[in-house]
Amino acid sequence: MIHTYSGETIQFDIIYKKRPSIAIYIDSYGNVEVQAPKGTPDESVLKLLEDKWDLIQQKSKEKKDRLLGPQKKNYNRGESFLYLGNNYPIEIYKDINITQDCVVFAEGKLHVHVKQLEDEKIQQAFKRFYYQKCKTLVERSIASYQSNFKTKPRSIRITDSKTTWGTCDSRLQLTFNWRLAMAPQRVIEYVVVHEMSHMVHLNHDRSFWRLVGKIMPDYKEHENWLAQSSWKMTV
Fold first, then answer.
1. CB-based contacts of 102: which residues, under 8 Å, 6+ apart?
2. CB-based contact 75:119 (threshold 8 Å)
3. Is the pLDDT of residue 187 over 70?
């Protein structure tokens, strides 16, 4: 079926079956399916769709975009970037008098100050911003969870990894991906707890996961956020 509401059109499949209420499902391709009790009037189905319209459109678009993979950013006014789990619009300023290109988060926006209005310069300014923020956030989280561990990290580094969010080697050296600054605070804390737990258990055996779960019982929720959102953590 096709339904238009608030100037937007959505296509959905409806299945009538033995169930107590109407439910809306969005599959991994962004397709919308409505399951309703047998005999449910079309008006009731459409009303629920309209009540949940913005959320349905958002979730459907996210899943369709995810299939496309990481998309190249446009460094124009109105583009948005992730920071601590939220999308914020950017404002770009050219200032030949600044000592270094930089990004400043203030008043719900990411303010980009560059000497030259070039995409590469803006991108580098964003990477520097995320590197610095990630270092501060990771160090703060390590200090917060240190009481759960007898040993301390020997060193902490922020790196540009394409495959991992963090690592811990046998010398207790921890590394973290700068893109973590785009994730919610609790997700960053989960990755920190994960890598600190490797100071005790270097592999992913049951003892390791028991330790992670003891310190952060809801860790699977944060794992899932990374699995679902990593594709949009780009600059």
1. 112, 113, 125, 128, 129
2. yes
3. yes
